[in-house]
Write a structure and sequence with these properties.
This protein is an alpha/beta fold. The protein has a single domain, classed as Oxidized Rhodanese, domain 1 (3-Layer(aba) Sandwich), CATH 3.40.250. The protein has six helices and five strands; from the N terminus they run H-E-H-E-H-E-H-E-H-E-H. A five-stranded parallel β-sheet has the order 1-5-4-2-3. Helix 1 packs across helix 5. It is globular. It starts with 5 loop residues before the first helix and ends in an 8-residue tail after the last helix.
């Protein structure tokens, strides 16, 4: 039995989640109603930097960190602000937001194009 291609999974996820352009995401963070959450691998952050002020939750631990019942829970993920997740190109972030919605998380979104789109637009990047 063939597997479902990841492109299909990402497209299905994007049809079920909220996605913001870099401009929309930046405006929400700037007005204080949202925070960026970088889900890339720590090596990517070290190599490329991150969006200014972005929090970091590696994709592999996110479900464990966000679940208040998990022994790995991180209190800083309990926020009233909208969390806007991003990765390198908005594939992992789409799957992440879909998975978190399935867990019952609300007030979450992803940023279209991810870090690559942000960088391509020559926006500010913070060194890690």
């Amino acid at each position: 039995m063939p597997i479902t291609p990841v492109k299909t999974l990402v497209a299905q996820a994007k049809a079920q989640i909220t996605s913001y352009s870099t401009q929309e995401a930046a405006a929400r963070v700037a007005d204080g109603t949202a925070v960026f959450v970088d889900i890339r691998d720590p090596r990517e952050l070290k190599r490329d930097g991150k969006l200014p002020g972005a929090l970091h939750a590696p994709r592999g631990m996110l479900e464990f960190w966000i679940d208040p019942e998990s022994p790995y829970h991180k209190d800083w993920l309990d926020t009233d602000k909208e969390m806007i997740f991003y990765c390198a190109s908005a594939w992992r972030s789409a799957l992440t937001v879909k998975a978190l919605k399935e867990m019952g998380c609300e007030n979450i979104a992803e940023m279209e194009g991810g870090f690559s789109a942000w960088k391509k637009e020559d926006r500010e990047i913070e060194e890690v």
